[in-house]
Request: fold
Amino acid sequence: MDERQINNNYESLYSQLYDRAEQLHESNKRRIRRGMIGLIVLPVVLGAIRAMTESDRVVFLIIWVISMFILCAYLITVEYLDDSIKKTLEDMTSQEAEFDELFVHPERIQGRLRERINEIRTGRLSLPEGNAGAEEPAPVAEPEPEPSSEEGGAR
Reply:
């Protein structure tokens, strides 16, 4: 296979993957919408059934709480899957954008080295400590104490 065929295969696979991810995202949006509607409709339906049958409140309360937990778990799972798909696509597109940065550009490196050398020469940037050629600063002499005025004064 030559490079053009490989590139075409890569582009077709990438576009298929992206289209599939978009379809999953749209279906997840529909699932989330249905789950939210279920969170609203379920208590109304259970309340109406309980009112018509005059059944025990505790049984319907237990059914309502369990169904809310199930619906919330469903919504959390759908949102988690949708978020992981979105992050995967973002990672893929950012890796593709950063691919060009992997190549070393000698012009950039030479320019950075020249800037760094000029900064060191002008003194704007100091050399790292521990260099063999660096001189140690001379010790500073301590000043002598001045005589106080009380020692040589009149009695």
Q: What stands out?
A: Residues 3-53 form the longest helix (51 residues). The two ends are 111 Å apart (CA to CA). The mean pLDDT is 77.
